[in-house]
Fold this protein.
Amino acid sequence: MGAVEEGRLTVDPDMEARAAQRTLHTLSLVLALSWLGTNLGYAIAGLPFRFLLKEQLRLSPPEISAFLALGIFTNYIKPFAGILTDSVPLCGTRRRHYLLFGLIGCGLGWLLLSVVPLRYGVLLATYMAMYATVVLISTTLGGVMVEVGIRFRAAGRLTAQRVGMFKLAALAGGPIGGYLASKPFLLTAAIVAGLHFLLVPLIYSTLREPATARVNREAWQDAREKLRGLLQNRPLQMAALMICLIAAAPGFGTPLLFHQTDTLGFQKQFIGNLELVHAAFGLMAAALYQRFCTHLTLKALLSYSILVHAFGTLFYLAYTSREAAVAITALEGIAQTFAMLPVYDLAARATPKGSEALGYSVMMSVWNLTNSFSDWTGSLLYAAFGLTFYHLVWVNAGTTLLAIVAVPFLPAALLSQRDRLPVRAA
């Protein structure tokens, strides 16, 4: 309670800190459930949809990579979604109704995807439309996460929670996806749609936002000014360059699927179970990161993560059997998570106040575009230029390692940051 001091009501600092901690817990729980529900759907759908492209449309590795790269085109223009949710209210709110309409639209999009004619052009157009709602949901949640992270100095922990929810979703989504890969795609689509619909009442009842925002006739002008400011923001420029360097290594995600099925003869269910192994160890790494980010600076985290990921990739040179696949997938789950988390952390910390969703979406657009280009490049080297899967492993590890030379060039104020300890441990 407050105390009276010289005729004034003062606030008990401990009570204020506890109230702030409760608010942080509530908001982080809403974020966690939202990340978990949406990404569980995407984890379930990933393998069945890739096998649909591989077996029913009979696409090659570069063609699958190109389809997915084009299908998620809206991922590369996330700043426009950021502009909408930062500057243009929807039904009087900046976040709440974008999430509600996005979740409903995404669920309907998955259902539509399962019933359209199975032709390349039709399927691609439907997938692109559906994925636009995925981007809207992700961008809006990212804006909420950055606002909460800056307000409570918890950017690293919320970033770790976000990736942790991704990994938790993959724990269940991988095996379920492996099972559904042999079933009609309609069943997969119905499950994914249902998960999105279930989040609607949660957001409606818990993410309270007064419908007081009004349409600003100068919103797009403000947005242009914000975007111009972001593009001139040196910390954001250097963070985007760093993200690009880390993600630019030629990838082998799609070639790995062909190596697993065509070379090693793995069954769909076993491939789905490998996703569980990857997620379980990734989840462990995300939990450890929440401790690391309060003790180590961002510079140390970035440097260590690049080294761990580059050398961890080399374990794929022994990917020759089911037993080796399980062990290597577990190690990769740790290495990949430690590689991603500091990058997401960097993106959140480099975002200027007042442009949370827009700034974070710029960083994620760079990450998504570079990742798609990386997988397509690796698939092209694999299918058209005769590089084997093991050649791609060497190329990926070497080019990833090169990114470490750019770490010292990031702004010192950014590199020196680390998370504040929780109130109870301070």
